[in-house]
Amino acid sequence: MTLRLATPADLPAILALLAQVVPLMQTAGNQQWSADYPNEAVFRADLKAGHLWVAELDGQLAGFAALTHNDQDAEYAQADWDFAEPALVIHRLAVAPAAQGRGVAAALLAQAETLARQQGLRVLRVDTNSENAATQRLFPKLGYRFAGEITLAFRPGLRFFCYEKRLAGAATRDSL
């Protein structure tokens, strides 16, 4: 498996993967993503900011995630964590249906840990729709603790479960 920052050339494959996973999510009762979100503009912004990572298996896009620094709306203060503490935040995590069960999501989350340590951050945060059973199993398995439930104004009617992972031995900014 190869993990790397996404490039603009990856955008068609990212949008194709998105088009595969959204209907599957919705069929499973998970309305977190739709035709409106995430969209091409969101991914272009992730690319421009240098936040979008991709995973490749056998030369094919197998997954992606936006790994951002403290990118959280005010509603995240509802969670049981220190909202003011700097954190690496995982957004828009998805795995191609054909690649599920092959460790792609775990590899992207491991990359988030690596980046957090490099940036001197001691905390990782992620949220998931309350109907996303797969991620609710995955995050605790990888050492994330449940940090409560929130709502988001830009996704009305949905509930989100928050998870946080504290990193032991994270580097400080001064030691980098």
From TrEMBL:
<dbReference type="InterPro" id="IPR000182">
    <property type="entry name" value="GNAT_dom"/>
</dbReference>
<protein>
    <submittedName>
        <fullName>L-amino acid N-acyltransferase YncA</fullName>
    </submittedName>
</protein>
<dbReference type="InterPro" id="IPR050832">
    <property type="entry name" value="Bact_Acetyltransf"/>
</dbReference>
<dbReference type="Pfam" id="PF00583">
    <property type="entry name" value="Acetyltransf_1"/>
</dbReference>
<keyword id="KW-0012">Acyltransferase</keyword>
<dbReference type="GO" id="GO:0016747">
    <property type="term" value="F:acyltransferase activity, transferring groups other than amino-acyl groups"/>
</dbReference>
<dbReference type="InterPro" id="IPR016181">
    <property type="entry name" value="Acyl_CoA_acyltransferase"/>
</dbReference>
<feature type="domain" description="N-acetyltransferase">
    <location>
        <begin position="1"/>
        <end position="168"/>
    </location>
</feature>
<keyword id="KW-0808">Transferase</keyword>
